[in-house]
């Protein structure tokens, strides 16, 4: 599977948008896929990039990435059930295609990312009245001015926080809790050992060198996120579901491992 047409020029961290897109597309092409994502398949076919040569083809990695995305999808879908005209903010959104998987036809979507990634997203996924794109660093609170909180807000940070420093993660959570009372946030984290190896440059295979990941959090440490701000009123892990054998059989046992990746949902107190 290699694309043709759009030629992306991205730095090391923004390039991870292509890595996650590729693995979603690889999984979505399977007849027994755990994540239906035809838009990801379409984008891979439109992009002139050596996906397979750069990232390899690993069915297990693709399935795990899709299961992670499905965790975020469930949280967003639940939010839109409660707040059908709410706003979903994708921080570090890259080429995420979640809006094409769970949109209800009434919600507002705001993608926030660095200028080079936003330029590519605008060409491939042009904005419209309900799907807006803003060039901003997630750590710069200026993006918050683009959010209408009147119908509810959910902030999604899939595949972002691990590339920030721990103090930046806490500051971002605090700023969101302060600015969007009654809102929610969904995030994912890599375990501490994984973060250390990435920072040391030891996360690589014959295809790909992962960027440094300064923020790591073991799954049993998620409660500490509540200390980022008094407005964080609930911290809950979102567990992956389904999967093909043997992943489906192993997932219940994986929950017992403290040093594993995790997806976490936060709720913010009403004002």
Automatic annotation (TrEMBL):
Keywords, in A-Z order: Methyltransferase, Transferase
TM regions (residue ranges): none
GO-annotated biological processes: methylation
InterPro entries: Ppm1/Ppm2/Tcmp (IPR007213), SAM-dependent_MTases_sf (IPR029063), TcmP-like (IPR016874)
Source organism, top-level taxon: Bacteria
Single annotated GO MF: methyltransferase activity
Residues making up the signal peptide according to the UniProt record: none
Protein name: Class I SAM-dependent methyltransferase
């Amino acid at each position: 599977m290699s694309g043709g047409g759009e030629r992306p020029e991205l730095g090391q961290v923004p390039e991870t948008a292509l890595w996650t897109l590729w693995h979603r597309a690889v999984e979505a092409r399977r007849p027994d896929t755990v994540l239906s994502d035809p838009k990801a398949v379409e984008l891979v076919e439109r992009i002139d990039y050596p996906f397979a040569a750069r990232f390899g083809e690993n069915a297990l990695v693709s399935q795990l990435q899709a299961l992670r995305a499905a965790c975020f999808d469930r949280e967003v879908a639940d939010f839109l059930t409660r707040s059908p005209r709410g706003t979903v903010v994708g921080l570090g959104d890259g080429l995420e295609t979640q809006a094409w998987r769970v949109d209800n036809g009434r919600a507002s979507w705001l993608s926030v990312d660095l200028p080079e990634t936003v330029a590519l997203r605008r060409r491939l996924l042009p904005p419209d009245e309900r799907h807006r794109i803003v060039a901003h660093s997630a750590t710069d609170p200026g993006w918050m001015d683009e959010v209408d909180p009147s119908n509810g807000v959910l902030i999604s940070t899939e595949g972002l926080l691990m590339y920030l420093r721990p103090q930046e993660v806490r500051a971002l959570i605090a700023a969101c809790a302060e600015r969007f009372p009654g809102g929610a946030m969904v995030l994912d984290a890599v375990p501490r050992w994984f973060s250390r190896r990435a920072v040391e440059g030891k996360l690589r295979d014959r295809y790909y060198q992962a960027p440094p990941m300064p923020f790591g959090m073991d799954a049993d440490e998620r409660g500490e996120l509540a200390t980022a701000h008094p407005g964080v009123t609930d911290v809950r892990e979102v567990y992956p579901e389904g999967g093909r054998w043997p992943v489906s059989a192993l997932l219940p046992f994986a929950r017992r491992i403290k040093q594993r990746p995790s997806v976490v949902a936060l709720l913010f107190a009403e004002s």
